Amino acid sequence: MNRRIVWVSVILVALAACTKASTPSIPKESGTSPAESPPAATSPASSPNSISGGGLNYYDCSTLLSDKEARDATGVPSMSLFNQEHGNALKGQTYCQFFGEQGAVSMAVSVLTGPAFQQLSQLAAAAQGLPNIPGIGDEAKWSDQGAFLGARVGKIGLTVVFTSMSGGKLDVSDPKGAAVAVAKIVISRV
Fold this sequence. Notes:
alpha+beta; Protein Transport Mog1p, Chain A; 6 strands; globular; disordered N terminus
């Protein structure tokens, strides 16, 4: 459980580091900066980047993305589903963990609904300087530095994150292309 919260924090830091400057302050009626207010204090009416979630749903990871689809999308011949969690770290998060190359490559796919969808507000703020990825939902961003794709489709969020578990070079030839391919498959099933 704490591992998932740590990953969200790591992703937010990585996305923030990818922007050219610090994330601009979002004006609030109280006049405080985002760092001074807890996320719960930000309402959709007071912040253009706030996102309100829809209903709470969980998904079966093997239905969202088969092992063959994961292998085809990533080009990693041994990529397969290792673990799935439903709301363990964040209520409303379906977390699908895939591994390949004897555990050296990790691909984490999360579908965010209900309360977990609120994480997209933080991700969107951190990703402001990143380029948009067209053709994936209502909004999608990619971070080369974090090997991270975040997308929004209506009131559903999606993240795809690649990690080299060996600490070396990521053994996915085209992480961005792989993340886009995975996102398109998963989005078609939620």
